[in-house]
Amino acid sequence: MAKLRYYDATTRYVPQTSPTTTDHSEFLRTGRISRAKTGIVTNSRRYLSYEDVAEQTAERLQAAGERTHDKLNSFHKSIQFPKLVFHRTLAETPHLGYCHVTASRTRFARYENVSWAFYIANFFAEIGEEGDAFVKIDPCYKRMYFAIAVRSDHDATEKKLTINRNVRGNGVLFRTHDPQVAIRNVLLLGARSEQLRDIIRQL
What we know:
Layout: E1 6-7, H1 23-30, E2 47-48, H2 50-73, E3 86-89, E4 97-108, E5 111-121, E6 124-127, E7 134-138, E8 144-149, E9 172-176, H3 179-190, H4 194-201
Antiparallel strand pairs: 1-2, 3-4, 4-5, 5-8, 6-7, 8-9
């Protein structure tokens, strides 16, 4: 795989056009000598380092994680999630990354007291067999929301996926590109009563 190169797409380079009159005729017309530089500015690109790209990606992921956490906690006072927002970018493609939003523990289907974590990624992919691996990245979707079961010894500040694959065979509780579906699923994981779950299911 060829190494990616990134450049600043927000920088605008405006070419200078050649003057329509000579400096001599301009002086005769206005009595002023133009000090403006003439000629064409080369339309070059300012390339970014991987560190610069990772920093920009991290800022966007952090902002998305905080907004999502606020939305989750504004739904109902009985459903409150800890704010554990941190991010990680992919080493070889720093424009891609994921953000840990929150973590909790709940009863999930036939599993008792499952520890889980909720993430947002700025890409859509399958979660691989290894710790923090993503496979089959799909460029058609710009976001992926997913929750995974995590091991009981999982540190909530640990900045990598620590999947408990004993839950559902792969440890993935849900994975979607739809933010509304994601919010509903996380709220269902956090709801403490069946009555509240019924309300959430109708959203």
